């Protein structure tokens, strides 16, 4: 039976590393979703219905312990929880919350294997009748760090007054989050609010053109016309438009830009 894993961590590089390890060590993982915001985690867990959650304790605003307690209170069938922490002093909380186990950052593959083997012993998987080799599509999707069980979306709905407008993904210049709301900027300069979150856009926009350059921004690479140095060895993307729009590249995402632009 395919297993679904959910990672909650505000550090994109750490989350991507854990996801990469999980995809490498287990063929039974069919879907892995990542949430970078503690406030959004509860809703996304309810929708995704994972079998196991890797939950980071130390997160801003809404920490992992608070999330775990809410999950225990709100979910009828609770997924297995593995706590992730940067401090061994917090490991005792894994015991208090009845978590399956814990991982200490920096995460090591052998520790993930230990936790995963423990999980499988509690949840043994039946032998499949036919081969379960990953498809070419799943390998390609996993290589970029996003596991998808659905095709890319060609169209998205956005709000326009009291109506719902449909826009082509090719006409999206930028998707960004601001004050717990998500907005879509189109190539004609229009700005529309969306009920979807950034993770949904990240998973459903074609990754050959769209990439997350910051925890609050997803950009269309075809709309980038310049890159400017910024303070603290960071950079700004200058997008097409009148006037051009500046988008920061998060420090954790600087290396990712090189997958799209030769620097």
UniProtKB/TrEMBL annotation:
InterPro entries: CheY-like_superfamily, LytR-like, LytTR_DNA-bd_dom, Sig_transdc_resp-reg_receiver. Residues 4-120 form the Response regulatory domain. Signal peptide: none annotated. Transmembrane segments: none annotated. Residues 156-263 form the HTH LytTR-type domain. One of its GO terms (molecular function) is DNA binding. This is Response regulator receiver protein. It comes from Megasphaera cerevisiae DSM 20462.
């Amino acid at each position: 039976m395919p297993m679904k894993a959910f990672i909650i961590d505000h550090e994109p590089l750490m989350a991507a590393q854990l996801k990469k390890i999980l995809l490498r060590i287990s063929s039974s993982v069919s879907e892995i979703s990542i949430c970078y915001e503690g406030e959004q985690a509860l809703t996304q867990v309810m929708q995704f219905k994972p079998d196991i959650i890797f939950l980071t304790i130390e997160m801003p605003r809404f920490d992992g312990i608070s999330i775990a307690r809410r999950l225990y209170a709100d979910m009828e069938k609770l997924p297995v929880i593995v706590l992730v922490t940067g401090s061994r002093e917090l490991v005792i909380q894994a015991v208090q919350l009845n978590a399956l186990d814990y991982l200490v950052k920096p995460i090591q593959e052998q520790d993930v294997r230990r936790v995963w083997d423990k999980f499988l012993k509690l949840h043994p998987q039946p032998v499949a009748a036919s081969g379960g080799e990953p498809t070419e599509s799943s390998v390609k999707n996993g290589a970029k760090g996003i596991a998808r069980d659905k095709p890319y979306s060609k169209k998205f709905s956005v709000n326009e007054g009291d109506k719902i407008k449909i826009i082509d993904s090719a006409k999206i210049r930028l998707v960004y989050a601001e004050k717990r709301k998500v907005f879509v900027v189109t190539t004609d300069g229009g700005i529309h609010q969306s009920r979807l979150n950034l993770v949904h856009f990240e998973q459903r926009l074609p990754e050959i053109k769209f990439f997350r350059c910051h925890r609050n921004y997803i950009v269309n690479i075809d709309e980038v016309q310049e890159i400017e140095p910024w303070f603290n060895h960071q950079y700004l993307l200058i997008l097409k438009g009148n006037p051009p729009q500046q988008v920061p590249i998060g420090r954790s995402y600087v290396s990712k830009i090189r997958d799209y632009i030769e620097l």
